[in-house]
Amino acid sequence: MFPLRDTQPSYSKPVVTVFLIVINILVFLFEFSLDDYTRNAFIFQYGLVPAHFAVANIFTSMFLHAGWLHVLGNMWFLWIFGDNVEDILGHGKFLLFYLACGTVAGLAQVLMDPASRVPMVGASGAIAGVLGAYMVKFPRSRIVTLFVLIIFITRVDIPAWIYLFYWFVIQLSGSFESTGISQGGTAFAAHVGGFVAGIALIFLLGTRPIYSRREDLHW
Fold it and tell me: Number of structural domains, the chain?
């Protein structure tokens, strides 16, 4: 199931969301310009390697990606869901929220497999936090989804809470089946940690007063 768009309107410009997307793309283009040896060295230096843990690498690893599908998939999810979470938090709080979720995600992955020498890279842990916040704040939004089953292709509208809860269950299942990074290269523990952090932080940080008024009118 691949999300095409959501139906939740945003009432402000997603300045930080766009900024994060641009930075991630630019960093990946720099990675792509390197030869294989230099690229691997770059990833090992700035990726999050649990066995060689460094606090700074929690942050640098959020802006590295392993390939085109990795970076484009992450940025697509951030584009769909990030604008609404930024809208209700405000630009400054959203940036803090994003980095905090990514930090929790990275620490969760380290705790899951502290001896791993495989570098973890990608924005998916931070974006998982965005998904968690979106699920609790916009549960009745609809996610327009491309559904593919062998040769059967259709488009369906799925309630956000169902789509995102299903996504979380898949990540949780993957984290139980694998210590650390799975054979498919997915950091499931980071996704779970980021998602839970997003749910907690959206309440702790609080939403903008204008959003609270819209909520009151909606209810």
Answer: 1
